[in-house]
Design a protein that fits this description.
The complex is a heterodimer of chains A (336) and B (341). Chain A is an all-alpha fold and 336 residues long. Chain A has a domain of 215 residues: MetI-like fold (Orthogonal Bundle), CATH 1.10.3720.10. Helix content of chain A is 82%, strand content 0%. Chain A is built from 14 helices and no strands. The longest helix of chain A has 38 residues. Chain A is flat. In chain B, helix 7 links the parallel strand 7 and strand 8. Chain B has a domain of 72 residues. In chain B, helix 6 packs parallel to helix 7. With 341 residues, chain B is an alpha/beta fold. In chain B, the strands form two sheets. Chain B has an eight-stranded mixed β-sheet with strand order 6-7-8-3-9-10-12-11, sandwiched between helices. In chain B, strands 2-1-4-5 form a four-stranded antiparallel β-sheet, with helices on one face. The chains are: A mainly alpha (336), B alpha/beta (341). At the A-B interface, helix 9, helix 10 and helix 13 of A face helix 2, helix 4 and helix 6 of B.
Amino acid sequence: MWRYIIKRILLVFVVILGVLIIIFILSEITPGNPAARLLGTEASMEEIEAKAESMGLNDPVIVQFGRYVFNFVTKLDLGQSYTTRQPVWGELMTRYPYTLTLGLLATALAILIGVPLGVLGAIKQYSVRDTVIVFLALVLMSIPNFWFGILCINTFSVKLKWLPPAGTGTWYHWIMPVVILSLGGMASLIRVTRSSMLDTIRMDYMRTARAKGQKESVVIIRHGFRNALIPVVNAISAQMSVVIGGTVMIESVFALPGIGKYMTDAVTALNWPAVRGGVICLAIAFSILNLIVDLIYVAIDPRLISRYNGVRGREIRKLKKEMAQARAAHAKEVNG
Amino acid sequence: MVEKNIQNNETVLEVDDLVVHYNTEEGVAEAVNGMSFTLHKGETLGLVGETGAGKTSVALAIMGLLPVPPSQIIRGSIKLNGEELVGKKNKEMRSIRGDKIGMIFQDPMTSLNPVMSVGDQIAEVIRLHENISKGEASVKAGKMLEKVGIAADRYKEYPHQFSGGMKQRVVIAIALACNPNILIADEPTTALDVTIQAQVLELINDLKKDYGTSVILITHDLGVVAETCDRCAVVYAGEIVESGSLEDIFLHAQHPYTKGLFGSIPRLDVIVERLHPIKGLMSDPMTLPEYCSFYDRCDHACEECKQGEPACMEVSPGHIVRCRLAHPEAMKPESWEKGQA
């Protein structure tokens, strides 16, 4: 078990390193001189050249990359934003809580509504209830969330004046962004849970559980749902990347000061250090969330662990023990 | 062959004129058509028949596990120790399932929950029917594991850590954990290889003797019946076409279908050039005829056979045949006389 967990944690570092390399190469090959952009349009060629030298932009790429990683790991230094001249790390950290809150709340809402609806649909397949749920999932899946966001602002903020149209402050501000961001994930969770439950409901072990005289509700939850969860957890982890991507859009629509908004602004301003930092932060968050999901996996499905440890290890140890015992018995017989 | 178990004639289960239909979009499938049989205490009854003959439907009807809809018990009664099971509420059936009737399923690979330890799966049924604590139930489940030949220290292991035969042992432990009156074994060895089959059958037999459980063994393997059963019923198209002691069925088969079954298996003691399979296919349960459902495949079919359902004939004590030709005074075609000679 520990072997799997340690392996999985090491993998996070590999993934983050990979993201760093890709992002670094991308920003390296984009045109534009960072020194010139930092100094602005009024700087002379000499000033720019001096700045570039002091920033180490004339060093080989590999050295620059090493320095970037080293600065990030030791000093949490992701460079300076071109537009504000502030350290990128500090700017990201003030925005991180908004994105995380938005992403986690939306995922939680998607799970809390999507999974139970999927189960409810599956246990009475083709019933009216099931048809309504399937139709709902189809509708939710087809709605583009930026459009729905604008529609909601128009209805609930402009016309009905129930909810604030944008910004932060009270929990009212979160309702629309969270709900709208969760819809896509909710739809796919309904579908995955439903089909996964339909598969497990037909399994023989459900019949075994019923043959024990177990209550139908317990049969469905303890025996069915736990088995159906495996693909669902998989879908949740896949959904998280969609949700994190979705925050970029939703933050723009609702003017939330999160990483998504920060990055869209940075991209339009060709503010590379900010884009780079934002992507890395999201990659780290995403890797950690995926790590948690994978560990949950292990808790749900005991078969995963034996793929790493193997029953063979146990059997070989047992065999060795038996052989040692037999040898000892034999020696005793010979000597005695 | 096991000696006949006649000394004890107490009836445990009585199935009378049971009819089960499946209502599907294509039509009504008549899965079980008036099956009647009794099971005595400590006896093993074999239900033999082809795939689709309605064997499993009977088992599920007894367990109260028929999927409703599409299936429906049209009429008939199932009496367990004199208590009528048909029409019982689900809640009442739950207290009977697992406690009074245990069931073993065909495929051990899929009958155990893959994410629950085997011990917990056995303890679950004990906790359901016996008023004992979680700890006591686990101790009992451990003992049950030992009883089916698995070390109790494997309690915490999961089904994927066991072989097929071992899994079937666990399923048997679940079925017998509450010491049921009846054990229904639905093709318990079909998915296992031959050496493991023998072990599992032996285990069922031994435990049956220890607990005094009556067993209904559903199979399509006549060899398995010969080895383990006291009595045997041959099922065709949802009807019992012939039933009796092992001797009656194996040595004095009367029904053309039973004879056909024996003609289609290779024998060690007789040299045969060619096996004689029964011609045609199993009748479609959607379109069963008004007359004998074996008519189309029968070598001895004649015009008289088309006159309504054949009646059951007791040709010797306990040996019942559902064929017009079994009647001693029936008009018999030439082919029949030849077959008897």
